[in-house]
């Protein structure tokens, strides 16, 4: 087999930590290679080095046997190394074509900053690329109008326009629905058939086992294992990643108590079209559905981020008005939002400051003068409880890994001691070990008598953690299913989530 | 041990500007020993007080992030000074006039806050409007004539001193302590940094973002009012042309002192040090007999160099 | 908006025609006591002669605002226009246009000789500065150290005054230590004056070029306890300056005669309408091939202050302090 990309003894230090510690890495022609490891294992840093974003402290890189040194992502790009980032980097205000050819516009004649671009040429080439990956939107669509999956297709087109040899995909599935993941895998396999190698990064073990030809496992900055798909099992893979056995989906018995939250006929724009449900103490109420089904929006209405246009909310039987998150917090509701960087954390502030933020009023003197001692005590308590890995509680949260950041968001809301906790995709982009910890915690919260709502797009998570499951489709609830004996199946939920039941009912 | 680390981090932050200030002062004193005469230091102190007070207000506004900025302080100095002079020369007692002026300037802050938070007009535009309106109103009130004949009890506000230190400096110290406490030791201060750091996350955490922004504009308005009174007392008159460009000096002071223009970061001490550097330049350039043609060139370059060094220092540390 | 504009224009023209009254427009430079004295003169002359007057100043010096107003005056068919251009060359085409349309145009305070305006009415800033220098020479007995404070290092009036001052003290032992630019900011003028006192303990005198410079210098001198030791010569006759003159802190101030400029501008334009341009010009002083009216300056000192105040009151500009 031909080696397309080879790296030897890559070393990269950051202050206080060796992120990548003498790693060898190779990609063969036309293979799908998965790079796995927990957050902080050094995957991201390695990818950044191989795609020219970072420069290694030592080590060498070869492309097609030729030694190279990437000064910038553009260098890597021109050598046939493309990357599709986890956070898509498209210009939302431009069209698909404009994005595909951004900074490499096809011009009439010689290319300068002021040359006239050849729109027809770019249009037809984009159309061709879109058809090769079976995308069904036009080249002149505005990117802001596309779904996440479609935007990813644009990214792939952008990469393909450069005739790449290797495409790195950093957690491409984390924001996709199941059917979208399937479609993406089709595209990936098709690329493979055309001789393009894919380096695939994901936290979802099932996906890795499904798509990979070969798997490289990293832990603590080192390459710890390499396996072919036929040799890999879930347990073996996880053990390699975590370095120990991990317990999944703990069973904690719960007894649902009184209704703590009731929502009647909530309506908001065309995203939430009359949603009603009840939440009891001691239960985990799962919210399943496709991305865009209105689950997040419903929770935002309950938490006061947006005000409902119609409908009523009752807490412990009493009708309440929630106009802002402040109101919701006063009513003992907590929301762990989906996007931790945008909504959950203030990255420029310390771990401690983030954790105490919603509880400040209770632990301050006279309700307005800060009590540093009390803050530190509270923060340390939850840092220890959730095992947040930080050198000290005054560390700026930006410097922590994704899993630890998510734990800070959790700590923030656990420390308020809310009765109602809403988790929106609590394990999105989180490594296996942390994921298991979070699952355990969610169950424990319910057994301690809290009402827990959990939105998740990962069906195993929904099936194994929820006592009841609400399924939404296009702003409406299509089913509320009992799961007290964990009797639900993926198929059942998918049936309702795709609006099938609605069609039958109507 | 946690505490220690935070404190060392804090004092380090303003160290650069403080060193810059002290070395500039030492440099001037060596070349012209008269720099250190009490009278000159008083002159310098009065100037620092005016810029320092404005810079503190500006720091609060800028810290709220989202491109928030207050362009009105310069013109507000003229307007509040002129209004105060008008009131006092029309028989309103000094203390009542001063209170009315401060209420008015806080009101202007509320006006800014209302447009920014409720109508979502960019702060740049609203306060640019006030910059023009306030300057225009002072011309309307005075027709360009300075209003003179202010009561001598009012003039003490600038010209008086306690144990040799001019009253404006005392005011600056007092306001500085209060505002520093406000910024570092209260929920409001923490909320302000949160809003500046990530407005959405702050809202999700239950921070009343609009109220925080509103308060920053009220503080900035209040500070401009105080500075307006001091300047009027300093000139012994209400002068409609005074204070142009002061908002830019205030912004520069805040940034030299470590305030991040993107929000979330800033300190009261830092902005006072920033204001001191700019005020010192005004004084030192005359002390050093630098040709007046070069003054603005030097001031501009110092601002750029000071901020650049700070940015570089942050990058090296980060 | 445009319709409204045209409409009001027609109304203005009609009323002008219907009453057959002359409308004379005067455009000044900025909101400033100086220009409100000009306005006073314009209004008084208008009343005396029975003509309607329009007076306009932009808030700060702004040639664009001036041009727009000039064009609107032309469009409304005014009987005569006087302007103090902030930029003497930028106004040339518009003034030419007005003249072509038969509207007499003159300049006041600041001239634009190449525009073809009929007359310039104003003070010669150079000779005023020269006079200031002469007074300073007398005050210092031809020997001493002076610091100059001004609001601009680019404006013509500032440059001419300073040049005049310098030329007047040429050949004496008077030395100019520094020229300080306060950028038209009174508070900075004060800081600079204080700094100058600190930097030069042997200073003998200040020369203040702009209206607020004199008072700023006087205040600094007073605070430093150097009244009498440091002489001050400055420009303009705002109440605060006269206050300091009365106290003897300012030794002499040069008042231009803005009131006269305003009054004469209206009068000359009135005459041009009544007896014709040529006939009017024949009565005016001729300098070479040009017509210039120098309104001169008043030198106000502690000795003649009362006299000056009485004269101003007679003109309808009572100055109280």
Structural account:
The complex is a heterotrimer of chains A (506), B (318) and C (321). In chain A, 34% of the residues lie in helices and 25% in strands. Chain A contains 19 helices and 20 strands. In chain A, a hairpin with a 2-residue loop joins strand 9 and strand 10. With 318 residues, chain B is mainly α. Chain B has one domain: ABC transporter involved in vitamin B12 uptake, BtuC (Orthogonal Bundle). Chain B is 77% helix and 1% strand. In chain C, the strands form 2 sheets. A 7-stranded mixed sheet of chain C has the order 2-1-3-4-5-12-11, with helices on both faces. Chain C has a 6-stranded mixed sheet with strand order 7-6-8-9-10-13, with helices on both faces. In chain C, helix 4 links the parallel strand 3 and strand 4. Chains in contact: A-B, B-C.
TL;DR?
The complex is a heterotrimer of chains A (506), B (318) and C (321). With 506 residues, chain A is of the alpha/beta class.
What class do helices, strands and sheet pairing of chain B give?
Answer: mainly alpha
Q: Regarding CATH, which class of the largest domain in chain A?
A: Alpha Beta
- Helical segment count of chain B: 13
Helix content of chain B: over 70%
Task: Give the CA-CA distance, first to last residue of chain B.
Answer: 21 Å
How many strands appear in the DSSP assignment of chain A? 20
Unreliable sequence segments of chain A? none
Strand order of the largest sheet of chain A: 6-7-8-3-9-10
List the helices and strands and how they pair.
The complex is a heterotrimer of chains A (506), B (318) and C (321).
Chain A: E1 3-14, E2 17-28, E3 32-36, H1 43-50, E4 58-63, E5 66-68, H2 73-78, E6 81-84, H3 96-100, H4 119-132, H5 148-160, E7 166-170, H6 178-193, E8 197-201, H7 205-211, E9 214-219, E10 222-228, H8 234-242, E11 259-268, E12 272-280, E13 284-289, H9 295-302, E14 310-315, E15 318-320, H10 325-330, E16 333-336, H11 340-344, H12 351-356, H13 360-363, H14 372-385, H15 402-414, E17 420-424, H16 432-447, E18 451-455, H17 459-465, E19 468-473, E20 476-482, H18 490-497, H19 500-505
Parallel strand pairs in A: 3-8, 3-9, 6-7, 7-8, 13-18, 13-19, 16-17, 17-18
Antiparallel strand pairs in A: 1-2, 1-4, 4-5, 9-10, 11-12, 11-14, 14-15, 19-20
Chain B: H1 2-31, H2 38-63, H3 73-89, H4 94-117, H5 123-142, H6 152-159, E1 161-162, E2 165-166, H7 167-185, H8 187-197, H9 199-204, H10 209-235, H11 246-256, H12 268-287, H13 292-317
Antiparallel strand pairs in B: 1-2
Helix pairs in contact in B: 1-12, 2-7, 2-10, 2-11, 2-12, 3-4, 3-5, 3-10, 4-5, 4-10, 6-10, 7-8, 8-10, 11-12, 11-13, 12-13
Chain C: H1 2-19, E1 23-27, H2 33-49, E2 52-56, H3 63-75, E3 80-83, H4 92-100, E4 105-108, E5 120-122, H5 125-139, E6 143-150, H6 156-168, E7 173-181, H7 186-199, E8 205-208, H8 213-223, E9 231-235, H9 239-246, E10 252-256, H10 258-275, H11 277-283, E11 286-287, E12 290-294, E13 297-300, H12 305-315
Parallel strand pairs in C: 1-2, 1-3, 3-4, 4-5, 5-12, 6-7, 6-8, 8-9, 9-10
Antiparallel strand pairs in C: 10-13, 11-12
């Amino acid at each position: 087999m031909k080696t397309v990309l080879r790296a030897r003894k890559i070393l990269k230090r950051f202050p206080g930590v060796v992120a990548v510690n003498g790693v060898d890495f190779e990609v063969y022609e036309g293979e799908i290679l998965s790079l796995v490891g927990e957050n902080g294992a050094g995957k991201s840093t390695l990818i950044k080095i191989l795609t020219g974003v970072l420069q290694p402290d030592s080590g060498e890189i070869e492309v097609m046997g030729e030694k190279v040194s990437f000064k910038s992502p553009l260098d890597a790009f021109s050598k046939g190394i493309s990357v599709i980032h986890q956070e898509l980097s498209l210009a939302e205000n431009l069209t698909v074509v404009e994005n595909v050819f951004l900074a490499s516009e096809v011009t009439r004649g010689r290319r300068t900053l002021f040359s006239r671009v050849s729109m027809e040429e770019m249009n037809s080439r984009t159309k061709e690329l879109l058809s090769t990956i079976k995308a069904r939107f036009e080249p002149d669509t505005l990117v802001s109008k596309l779904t996440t999956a479609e935007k990813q297709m644009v990214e792939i087109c952008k990469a393909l326009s450069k005739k790449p040899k290797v495409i790195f995909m950093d957690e491409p599935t984390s924001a996709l629905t199941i059917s979208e993941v399937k479609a993406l895998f089709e595209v990936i396999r098709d690329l493979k058939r055309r001789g393009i190698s894919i380096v695939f990064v994901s936290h979802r073990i099932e996906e890795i086992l499904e798509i990979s030809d070969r798997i490289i496992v990293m832990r603590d900055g080192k390459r710890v294992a390499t396996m072919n798909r036929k040799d890999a099992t879930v347990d073996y893979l996880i053990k390699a990643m975590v370095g120990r056995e991990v317990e999944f989906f703990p069973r904690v018995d719960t007894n649902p108590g009184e209704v703590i939250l009731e929502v009647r006929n909530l309506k908001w724009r065309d995203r939430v079209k009359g949603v009603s449900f009840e939440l009891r103490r001691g239960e985990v109420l799962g919210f399943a559905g496709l991305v865009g089904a209105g689950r997040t929006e419903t929770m935002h209405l309950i938490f006061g981020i947006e005000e409902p246009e119609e409908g009523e909310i009752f807490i412990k039987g009493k009708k309440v008005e929630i106009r802002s998150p402040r109101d919701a917090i006063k009513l003992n509701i907590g929301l762990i939002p989906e996007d931790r960087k945008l909504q959950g954390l203030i990255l420029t502030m310390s771990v401690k400051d983030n954790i105490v933020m919603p509880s400040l009023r209770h632990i301050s003197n006279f309700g307005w003068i800060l009590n540093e001692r009390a803050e530190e005590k509270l923060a340390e308590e939850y840092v220890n409880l959730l095992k947040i890995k930080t050198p000290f509680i005054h560390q700026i949260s930006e410097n922590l890994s994704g899993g630890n950041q998510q734990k800070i968001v959790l700590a923030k809301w656990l420390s308020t001691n809310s009765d109602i906790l809403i988790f929106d995709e609590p394990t999105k982009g989180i490594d296996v070990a942390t994921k298991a910890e979070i699952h355990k915690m969610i169950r424990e919260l319910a057994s301690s008598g809290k009402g827990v709502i959990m939105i998740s797009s990962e069906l195993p998570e929904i099936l194994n953690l929820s006592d009841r499951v609400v399924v939404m489709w296009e702003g409406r609830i299509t089913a509320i299913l009992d799961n007290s004996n964990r009797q639900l199946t993926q198929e059942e939920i998918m049936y309702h989530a795709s609006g099938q039941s609605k069609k039958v009912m109507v | 041990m946690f505490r220690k680390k935070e404190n060392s981090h804090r004092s380090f932050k303003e160290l650069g500007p403080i060193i810059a200030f002290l070395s500039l002062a030492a440099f001037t004193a060596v070349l012209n020993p008269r720099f250190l005469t009490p009278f000159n230091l008083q002159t310098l102190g009065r100037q620092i007080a005016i810029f320092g007070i404005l810079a503190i207000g500006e720091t609060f506004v800028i810290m709220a992030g989202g491109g928030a900025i207050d362009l009105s302080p310069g013109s507000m100095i003229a307007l509040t000074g002129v209004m105060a002079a008008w009131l006092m020369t029309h028989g309103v007692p000094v203390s009542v006039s001063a209170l009315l002026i401060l209420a008015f300037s806080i009101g202007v802050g509320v006006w800014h806050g209302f447009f920014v938070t409720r109508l979502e007009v960019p702060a740049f535009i609203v306060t640019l409007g006030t910059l023009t309106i306030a300057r225009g109103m002072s011309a309307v009130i005075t027709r360009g004539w300075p209003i003179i004949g202010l009561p001598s009890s009012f003039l003490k506000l600038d010209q008086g001193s306690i144990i040799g230190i001019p009253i404006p400096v005392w005011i600056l110290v007092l306001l500085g302590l209060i505002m520093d406490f406000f910024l570092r030791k209260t929920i409001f201060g923490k909320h302000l940094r949160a809003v500046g750091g990530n407005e959405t996350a702050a809202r999700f955490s239950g921070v009343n973002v609009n109220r925080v922004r509103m308060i920053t504009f009220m503080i900035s308005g209040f500070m401009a009012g105080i500075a307006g009174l001091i300047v009027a007392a300093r000139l012994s008159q209400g002068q409609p042309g005074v204070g142009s460009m002061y908002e830019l000096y205030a912004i520069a002071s805040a940034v030299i002192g470590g305030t991040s223009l993107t929000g979330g970061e800033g300190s009261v001490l830092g902005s006072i040090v920033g204001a001191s550097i700019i005020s010192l330049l005004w004084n030192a350039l005359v002390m050093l007999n630098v040709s007046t043609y070069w003054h603005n060139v030097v001031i501009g370059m110092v601002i750029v160099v000071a901020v650049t060094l700070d940015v570089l220092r942050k990058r090296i540390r980060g | 908006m445009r319709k409204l504009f045209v409409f009001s224009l027609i109304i203005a023209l009609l009323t002008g025609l219907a009453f057959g009254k002359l409308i004379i427009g005067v455009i000044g430079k900025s909101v400033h006591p100086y220009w409100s004295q000009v306005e006073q003169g314009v209004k008084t002359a208008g009343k005396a002669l029975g003509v309607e007057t329009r007076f306009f100043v932009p808030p700060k010096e702004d040639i664009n605002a001036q041009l727009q107003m000039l064009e609107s005056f032309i469009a409304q068919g005014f009987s005569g226009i006087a302007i103090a251009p902030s930029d003497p060359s930028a106004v040339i085409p518009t003034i030419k246009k007005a003249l072509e349309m038969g509207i007499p145009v003159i300049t006041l305070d600041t001239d634009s000789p190449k525009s073809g305006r009929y007359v310039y009415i104003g003070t010669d800033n150079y000779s005023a500065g020269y006079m200031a220098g002469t007074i300073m020479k007398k005050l210092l007995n031809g020997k001493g150290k002076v610091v100059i404070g001004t609001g601009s290092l680019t404006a013509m009036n500032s440059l001419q005054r300073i040049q005049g001052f310098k030329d007047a003290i040429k050949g004496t032992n008077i030395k100019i230590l520094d020229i300080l630019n306060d950028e038209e900011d009174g508070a900075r003028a004060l800081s600079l004056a204080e700094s100058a006192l600190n930097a030069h303990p042997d200073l003998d005198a200040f020369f203040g070029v702009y209206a607020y410079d004199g008072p700023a210098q006087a205040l600094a001198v007073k605070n430093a306890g150097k009244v009498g030791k440091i002489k001050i010569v400055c420009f303009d006759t705002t109440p605060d300056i006269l206050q300091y003159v009365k106290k003897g802190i300012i030794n002499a101030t040069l008042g231009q005669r803005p009131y006269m400029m305003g009054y004469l501008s209206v009068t000359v334009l009135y005459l041009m309408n009544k007896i014709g341009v040529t006939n009017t010009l024949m009565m005016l002083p001729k300098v070479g091939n040009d017509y210039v009216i120098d309104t001169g300056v008043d030198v106000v000192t502690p000795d003649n202050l009362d006299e000056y105040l009485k004269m101003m009151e007679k003109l309808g500009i009572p100055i109280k302090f």
